[in-house]
Design a protein that fits this description.
5-stranded antiparallel beta sheet, elongated, 11 strands, 6-stranded parallel beta sheet, binds adenosine-5'-diphosphate, alpha/beta
């Protein structure tokens, strides 16, 4: 059976989640207090309704607890976001993902039982900052305070060299998990794999180790 999702709040974030889930063939109920927003998503989502998610009776009548996953994407109105999340928890929704506006909001959401709290603006800011500092860092995913996965563009310094020659694991303590070349992706690169300019290396490691390696091998400026 198809998974059923409900997205509450159809701003830029909630709207793009709704669109992407629908494109992936999921059943999506789109909810917003704003009629224009709801009309916009009427043809994208499976169902779209004008409703105030802070109203407990409304949530019950929508059968919200039967959804597999509810995403709360209410933007600036932190109070509504918290109240909605609380009611979803109380009604026993199995998976609740909430967008937080700031660290205090995140703290409260975690306390009241949100299963996942996301911070899209902050996370995107971090990713873009890494890309601005080093143009070879194409993407960045923080795993913890210390560890990350980064996508690095291979330049002149590594062109034509094999993984064994570069000896990245021993010298820098990082691991190359995969190499993307055009549309191809090699998820288990072998030691004598040669890197060519323009390859994208997906590297996992401690931030300090990745930085060290990046400065020596990927700083072609
Ligand atoms: P973004 O920063 O992702 O664009 P916005 O603040 O613009 O977020 O959008 C949040 C959406 O949430 C708005 O469309 C707003 O109408 C909707 N919204 C706010 N409060 C409620 C509520 N109580 N119930 C349903 N939708 C709500």
């Amino acid at each position: 059976m198809k998974k059923q999702f409900a997205v509450i709040g159809l701003g830029r974030f909630g709207g793009s989640i709704c669109e992407s889930l629908s494109k992936q063939g999921m059943e999506v109920l789109a909810i917003d207090t704003n009629e224009d927003k709801v009309n916009k998503f009427a043809t994208i989502a499976t169902h779209a309704v004008v409703a105030d998610s802070t109203d407990e009776t409304t949530l019950r009548s929508l059968g919200i607890r039967n959804f597999d996953h509810v995403i709360v994407a209410i933007g600036d109105n932190i109070q509504s976001s918290i109240l909605t999340t609380l009611m979803l928890v109380e009604q026993g929704v199995k998976h609740i993902t909430v967008k937080a506006q700031n660290d205090y909001h995140e703290k409260v959401l975690n306390k009241i039982g949100a299963h996942k709290v996301v911070h899209p603006e902050r996370d995107m800011g971090i990713r873009i900052a890494h890309n601005i500092v080093s143009k070879n860092v194409l993407d960045y995913l923080e795993l913890s305070d210390e560890y990350s996965i980064v996508e690095l563009m291979a330049g002149e310094a590594v062109h034509g060299r094999t993984l064994i020659e570069l000896d990245i694991r021993a010298k820098y303590g990082c691991n190359i998990m995969a190499i993307k070349r055009g549309d191809e992706i090699n998820v288990s690169p072998v030691a004598d794999e040669s890197i060519i300019r323009g390859d994208i290396l997906i590297v996992i490691g401690a931030d300090s180790d990745i930085n060290r390696m990046e400065q020596v091998l990927f700083d072609d400026d």
